[in-house]
Amino acid sequence: MKVWLKGAILLGICLGNIEAKELQELLLSSQNSSRMEAKERAIQSARLQEEALFAGYLPKASLGYDHQRLSKASAYTPTRVNRGYGEVSVVIFDGLAREERLEQFERLKQARIHEANFERENLALEIIEKYFSYHYTQSLLQSALQKDRELSESLRRSKILHDSELIPLDEPSALEAALEQNRYEIEAYRLHLFRYQQQLELLSGSPLESLQANSRLKEPTGGESGILREDLRAREEEVNALEHQAKTHTYWPTLSAKNSYSHYDFNSYLSEGTPSAQPERQNEFLLSAKMDIFDFEAIAKERESVRMQKLKAQSELNYAKESLQKEQKIALFTLQVLKQQLKAAQLSLKASSTALEIQRQKFSAQLLSHTDYLAALSQEFEAKAKLQTALNEYEIAKARFYFALGAPLFEQITLENRP
């Protein structure tokens, strides 16, 4: 029994103090995780798409070669022609579609940036929840180990008294049953601790060689004002992108220019000795304008379709904003309720500890039955569990409150001992 108890205590210490990493270190480490890397790749992709679009509107230069062969030709038309050429072209005006498309891609890039910022805060919230749940479970494990020691000592005394035929067998049997039930719970806590450790390693992207319990979140003052959260800012940018996309469908004319220089090789005519009627070198400049005047309203319908998409996205954004306002109110009210529960749990533990101390003395003096003693011991353990639950839920509620307000979670963390 002593060997098992020492092993359980050692495991609890190892799980709780694998190396002392603070909560802020976990958040900083998470910036290099695969989740954040994926968001950074999305930003890079959007930036490259914007650059490619801009480059597509710059003047283009190209080189080419043509080979032409005719089966029927006049005496002054070559049957075979080889041409090498160089060409420069540019779109001068395309009905402002170029400007609108560039602005559309800029809005989409900004949306990816806001999405990355939101993912950073969402990841931080998950880490904070797992961090405090880890220490909550660790506190329950320590309480269970303390209960194990007390039950083991009580069982030892009961067996001595039973062997001396001073008490019936039901007392040590009841204590042994309570001891084994407590050890069952200890194993469950160990499993939960291991799960939280693995989840924190996954979220932070680094091994947990240490984890300190000296972090908590700042107390809300009640006067905090929320800002538009990053996920909603991303959706606003997507709505703006759709607005610019609709304007790319236009009936305005397109004006373009092209200049090409060609060198011809006329090496075959129908009649021998026929002089070439074609110049061997040619420079050609072409200025063209094009405007759609009738297309069965195809462009107009495309533009209206995109406008409907924009209105749909705008309605969804409005609903999301209203939902966030409700979420902020719920988070604030939850904080107020949990604060009162925390105070009640602290008073409950104080009363339970006082009652247990009295019952322990009576039990040692054989003035109290084992049933009443176990009830008092369980009551104190439940009071400790309620207090740890209240502490855990209160810290997590503060994190969710700041998250709903759009406040950076990293800036809300302070290094001090939990109450």
Describe what you observe in this structure.
With 419 residues, the protein is an alpha+beta fold. The chain contains eight helices and six strands; from the N terminus they run H-H-H-E-E-H-H-E-H-E-E-H-H-E. The strands form two sheets. The protein has a four-stranded antiparallel β-sheet with strand order 1-2-4-5, with no helix packed on it.
Q: What fraction of the residues are assigned to beta strands by DSSP?
A: 5-15%
Which percent range fits the helix content?
55-70%
Name the poorly predicted regions.
1-20
Query: N- to C-terminal separation?
Result: 33 Å
Side by side, the strands of the main sheet go 1-2-4-5
Give the CA-based shape: elongated
Strand segment tally: 6
Mean pLDDT, to the nearest integer, reads: 85
Order of helices and strands: HHHEEHHEHEEHHE
- Give a short account of the largest sheet: 4 strands, antiparallel
**What's the quaternary structure here?**
single chain
User: Helix- and strand-based class?
Assistant: alpha+beta
Structural Rg = 38 Å
Tally the helices: what do you get? 8
